[in-house]
Amino acid sequence: MLNYLRNVLHMNISMEEAENIYKQLPLLYKGTYDIFMLNSGGAEWLVMRPKAYVGLSQLRKNRAFLETKSQLNVALYLDKASLYSKDKMIEDGIPFIIDGDTVYLPFLGLLLGKRQRELKPVHQISFLTQRILLTGLYEGYDNATVTALSGKLGVSKMAVSKSFDELEYLDVGVINQLGRRRSITMRGDKKSLWEKIKPFMRNPVIRTFDLKQDARMSLCAGISALSEYSMLADNPYPTYAIEKSEVNMSGIRELKQASKGDDIGCRVFEVGYFLDCIKPGVQDPLSVLLSVEDEKDDERVEISIEEMLKEYVW
């Protein structure tokens, strides 16, 4: 680290581990980061280097806390970071150093970097990418390539490659790169994996149809799916799912819709994807969690969600 900074900044820099700083901080910091005191041309500042992968939101909070406690400028030192992460840190004025790549130290008036492959900005994760992540969490990936996932999921290599671009841009922390070859690895503790990918997840429900009559469809979703995974009693009406690609052919738009105050025969979720890898014909547990977000205020639903996750996911 020191040699890299001296070569890039062309300054005489001294550095030592900031042992006294740890005493002012919660134990989390000692276990998660190496913290160094630097002196460059008489200016003192701190560098905070994570010992393992830490998400951008957590890095942002921990760095701000350290800066407040120490009353010194604090820069992050990362082994690698996505274009998205760099853009966000520069946008937020967060000093950072990417090993062998980029130096952004606004308190010293510095922004030095090298050109990278352009990635399209991602404002919302695609449903295919979400499906890839959830499948990886349930089943595990060990350096799964574009070709392997294309065959497994029944989609084109181009579509999977675009999902890899999304994951790389968003810096989800699951993409491996060796030269031009990219792969995805998801293994280990599923609860930890979920915490890593949860900030990027979206509700799979695009639209809800409340119908006067029970359409008797084959795919179970929402509260009906939750009742399949737990002791929760279902609503008086069933909840089904239909994928977006099948809505036009299904004729569901022509079925009589329930008006406000009417009894509901069934509820149908139009969804961006459907995974039934835990129980055939039943929406997967984490997508259930995302689908019933508006109903989590009900204590029975919240308890049933915890029961479901403990039994079928963790």
Account of the protein in words:
The chain has 314 residues and is α+β, with helices and mostly antiparallel strands. The chain folds into 3 domains: 2-112, no CATH class; 127-200, Winged helix-like DNA-binding domain superfamily/Winged helix DNA-binding domain (Arc Repressor Mutant, subunit A); 205-312, no CATH class. Helix content is 38%, strand content 22%. It has helices at 2-9, 19-22, 27-32, 56-70, 83-91, 127-139, 146-153, 157-170, 190-197, 222-229, 247-250, 285-291, 299-312; strands at 13-17, 33-40, 43-50, 74-78, 96-98, 102-105, 110-112, 141-145, 175-178, 181-186, 205-211, 239-243, 266-271. β12, α11 (247-250) and β13 (266-271) form a beta-alpha-beta unit. The model has no long low-confidence stretch (mean pLDDT 89).
Strand order of the largest sheet: 1-2-3-4-5-6-7
C-alpha end-to-end distance: 38 Å
Strand tally is 13
Mean pLDDT: 89
What's the total helix number?
A: 13
Low-confidence stretches are: none
Note the run of SSEs as H and E: HEHHEEHEHEEEHEHHEEHEHEHEHH
Rg over alpha carbons = 24 Å
Query: What class, by secondary structure content?
Result: alpha+beta
Residues in helix, %:
25-40%
Biggest sheet, open or closed, and with what strands and sense? 7 strands, mixed
